[in-house]
From TrEMBL:
Keyword tags: Antiviral defense, DNA-binding, Endonuclease, Hydrolase, Magnesium, Manganese, Metal-binding, Nuclease
One MF term in the entry's GO annotations: metal ion binding
Organism (species): Insulibacter thermoxylanivorax
InterPro entries: Cas1 (IPR050646), CRISPR-assoc_Cas1 (IPR002729), CRISPR-assoc_Cas1_C (IPR042206), CRISPR-assoc_Cas1_DVULG (IPR019856), CRISPR-assoc_Cas1_N (IPR042211)
Protein name as annotated: CRISPR-associated endonuclease Cas1
Length: 343
């Protein structure tokens, strides 16, 4: 198991990233804002347009340190990675299966099984932990409905049908998402997913968490030799990390959604930490985004027992372990890809 390294988040939009020896240096108006040894880093995520020096990008590419460029609002711009170190046989197997809809569906259905199962687990846990604060009967009813979608997904061999099951299950799950917000209800409400742009505080945080999770998953896939851009459920589209989007499906609820809910329910974020643009987009302030990123890094250090391996690992290694398991399945070492089924 590899060591869990750190991600550097550069939140100042006008900082230029440069190289000095084995250090990354943040510059503004030719003045150094700070420096950090690169050997401690696994990846760099920067918010803004100023950019990075070719020397830094070359250094990071040689050492498999990815650099992801996002806009100040968190929209993906580009990702710089080094030459592919993937096993050619593994990637050929990935490409071959991706070109076959039925074979793709046999893998993709496990991503969706994981997603629906984990959503169901979240609802069941809410009824157990907060029986006096949530409508237990309503939660149980939706949980039973998710059971039906789980049953159908297990035998599904068609991608369109699978997408339909995922969409229906997600619709039911989101019907009680607002009920899982137990604090600050006057400011944090959820009436459905809104993307590009997010229209409320909750969606702003959900979108940001999904971006971070997708980045972590893409990095994990590349590190085990898979192509993050060639998926099974999400089909090929230029510039889209389709396989990373496939594999975060099973982690959206238990990793990203629970993280956002905890920030709200613990009152670690407040409505003062957001602002609205003229087009209606709701964004986090710089301070809230820094708080969010600090909490995200802390979350990645929390230890859990992996449900398939039975070993204790940090949350931050879950994307890497799932990527390894997918690679093992594609090599023929496993009979089936085991989704992350949390309890």
């Amino acid at each position: 198991m590899r060591k869990l390294l750190n991600t550097l988040y550069v939140t100042q939009p006008d900082a230029y990233l440069s190289l000095d020896g084995d250090n990354i240096v943040l510059l503004k108006d030719q003045q150094a804002l700070g420096r950090l040894p690169l050997h401690n880093l696994e990846s760099i995520i920067t918010f803004g347009y100023t950019g990075a020096s070719p020397a830094l990008m070359g250094y990071c590419a040689e050492r498999n340190i990815s650099i992801t460029f996002l806009t100040a609002s968190g929209r993906f711009l580009a990702r710089v990675i080094g030459q592919s170190r993937g096993n050619v046989t593994l990637r050929k197997a990935q490409y071959r299966i991706s070109d076959q809809e039925r074979e793709s569906a046999l893998i993709a259905r496990n991503f969706i099984i994981g997603k629906i199962y984990n959503h169901k687990w979240m609802l069941e846990r809410m009824t157990r932990d907060y029986p006096l604060r949530v409508d237990v009967e309503r939660f149980k009813s939706i949980s039973h409905q998710l059971d039906e979608y789980l049953y159908e997904a297990r035998s599904c061999e068609n991608l369109e049908t699978l997408r339909g099951l995922e969409g229906q299950a997600a619709w039911h799950y989101y019907q009680v998402f607002d009920d899982m917000i137990l604090q600050q209800k006057e400011s944090f409400t959820f009436h459905g997913r809104s993307r590009r742009p997010p229209r409320d505080h909750v969606n702003a945080m959900l979108s940001f968490a999904y971006i971070l999770l997708t980045h972590d998953m893409a990095a994990a896939l590349e590190s085990v030799g898979l192509d993050a851009y060639v998926g099974f459920l999400h089909r090929d589209r230029p510039g889209r990390v389709s396989l990373a989007l496939d594999m975060i499906e099973e982690l959206r609820g238990i990793y990203a959604d629970r993280f956002v809910l905890s920030l709200i329910n613990r009152k670690e974020v407040t409505p003062n930490g957001f602002y609205q643009k003229e087009n209606g987009a709701v964004l986090m302030t710089d301070e809230t985004r820094k708080l969010f990123l600090k909490a995200w890094q802390a979350k990645k250090q929390e230890m859990i027992t992996h449900p398939f391996l039975g070993e204790k690992i940090p949350w931050g290694l879950v994307p890497y372990v799932q990527a390894l398991l997918l690679a093992r399945y594609l090599r023929g070492d496993l009979d089936e890809y085991p989704p992350f089924l949390w309890k």
